[in-house]
Amino acid sequence: MVALNGAVAVVSGANRGLGREVARQLVERGARVFAGARDPRSVDIDGVEALPLDITNAEQTAEAARVASTASILINNAGVSTLARLSDGTLDDIRQEMEVNYFGTLNMVRAFAPVLARNGGGAMLNVSSVMAWLALDHSNSYGASKAAVWAMSNGLRVELADAGTHVSSMFVASTDTDMMSSFDIPKHRPEDIVRIALDEFEAGTREILADDTAVALKAGLSEDIGKHAA
Ligand SMILES: NC(=O)c1ccc[n+]([C@@H]2O[C@H](COP(=O)([O-])OP(=O)(O)OC[C@H]3O[C@@H](n4cnc5c(N)ncnc54)[C@H](OP(=O)(O)O)[C@@H]3O)[C@@H](O)[C@H]2O)c1
Predict the structure, then answer these.
(1) CATH second-level architecture of 8-228?
(2) pLDDT tens across 145-173, in order?
């Protein structure tokens, strides 16, 4: 079980999209929230403390860990999608997805793991994606970075066990945020997905499958690989 009421939590990418909703609902659940954003002036949620935070900047992640030194909850939400294709997208776009989604998240983990440990172990939630498990044109570079987040979360669960740090990862399909604005497909409401995710996080679920697509794809991982290409 992960107690959010009364906890101190840090959320990356808290100025919009899923991260903003996570920060808002954490406040509702009684947490003290440090809302990380590249531009802290863009944080518009009542009751949070805005934190300048570009997760690719190791000095800023270290400074965030100094400021939020009482944190026991880390929500690694910040991420980018460039829609680059693996075979002919620009390497700059492909590297950016790894730089933010994987190495940026890793920067946060390395800055905050000692903070969580000092504060009793705590818990982190790493936002991956169903694209870790699904091939889809224009999302495969992004998917590789999110598969890396999945693998990282599994590894950290082992490495941080002695410190008592609980590690959850989260998988969800299309949710209505800026990231998905160019896709004309059915989308979940961020508030619904975040409610499910935080309920599961509080319950101690290690892999949070926040919608039916995530459940089906996870269940199908042992099937023939052809079924996972769209
Ligand atoms: N929406 C979906 O359908 C969906 C599905 C599965 C997983 N996800 C994942 O959910 C997370 C949130 O996505 P979203 O849909 O809310 O996207 P979004 O609306 O595009 O928001 C992305 C957030 O990440 C921040 N960010 C980007 N690069 C950053 C950096 N270097 N340092 C710090 N913050 C940075 C953005 O800040 P700026 O405002 O400064 O750019 C923004 O706050 C991402 O990890 C995404 O991959 C989304």
Answers:
(1) 3-Layer(aba) Sandwich (3.40)
(2) 999 999 999 999 999 999 999 999 999 99
